[in-house]
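User: Is it possible to get a 3D structure for a protein together with its bound compound? The compound here is iron/sulfur cluster. I've pasted both below.
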Amino acid sequence: MSGSYNAHSVLSASGAYRWMACTLSAMLEKDFDNVTSTFAEEGTAAHDLSEHKLKKALKMRSKKPNSQYQNDEMDEMTDLYVEYCLSIIEKMKESCPDLQILIEQRLDFSNYVPEGFGTGDLIVVGNKTLHVIDLKYGKGIEVSSYRNPQMMLYALGALSLFDMLYDIEQVVMTIVQPRVGNFSTYELSVSELMDWAENELKPKAELAIRGEGDYCAGSHCRFCRAKDVCRARAMKNLELMKHEFANPDLLSDEEVAEIIGLADELSKWASDVYTYASALAINEGKEWTGFKVVEGRSRRKYTDEEAVAAKAKEAGYNDIYKKALISITEMEKLMGKKTFKELLSDYVKKPKGKLTLVPESDKRQAVELITQEFQIEDEN
Ligand code: SF4
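Assistant: Yes, that's possible. Here is the predicted structure of the complex:
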């Protein structure tokens, strides 16, 4: 299972892509909560279900897990993952009947990364080959296995368990991301893996655990807990905006192309900072100079569709269904504003809009936020 779903060490396998690129992020992240998301919980549920299915298919004992996240899609996607795993196992069995198969195996790679461990979804060993297979249930970003540090760390952990017994020469790492049809495989020799471990991984891990090295902002920032308020990331993005262009009046085609290339990272950063500031303003009453919290726009809703239909029909309006009852706007148009109000105002409500952080100049009125804590009287 991907390391992000379980207990984390400071230098987690799932974070290796980030802390290898920005060694100082490992220590900076420690001051930020590891907030779990519904995506992570969904991922855990998918892993539990696929573990169960795979064990069943291999005639191992397993109890079906229960989760509110299980649905038809998860059932179908975990089937795809299990089918893929079984196809690898079957193929390997043709040349090696005595395979080692490990499901949800704890893998220790602390020889290279201080306190480093993770959990491999499926490890298959036989015929001098080690297969590491990892299920990724997310569908936001397609993940490649090409020199993927998380997978390479799992491979190192698995090698330390089996190398003595099986004389492994090749490592095959596969990421199965069924919701985006991604089955990404990367193969390398054990000596290539060891070279990477000694010359790239180990020095970076040593810097990271000591809180040394440099900040380095890039696409990996997206997975950093400090990303909203990290100065290095802000500086890099602000630097991009200071770009000096040659022609003072109009941008050249090259400059437009350059801006498009930078826009993605810039907009992600701006959106992260806005989300961070909004959450503090709305949930904790934090005041940001020049900004206020208002109620966002909301749409009117019928409170009781049957009563609306009855009222409208009683007043002689029969043309009020398309596939379902016509919308409020259509009904208002059909009846005219005055009649609509007379007949149906009791059956229409406007829910409160979502709270939103906007500039002080916005026309909407600021919302009074209740931020003081209520004191609970001691009942004794
Ligand atoms: S946000 Fe980016 S630059 Fe800042 S610590 Fe995290 S990974 Fe490094």
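The pocket of iron/sulfur cluster is lined by residues 18, 22, 25, 28, 215-217, 220-221, 224, 226-227, 230, 232-233 (CB under 6 Å). The two ends are 49 Å apart (CA to CA).
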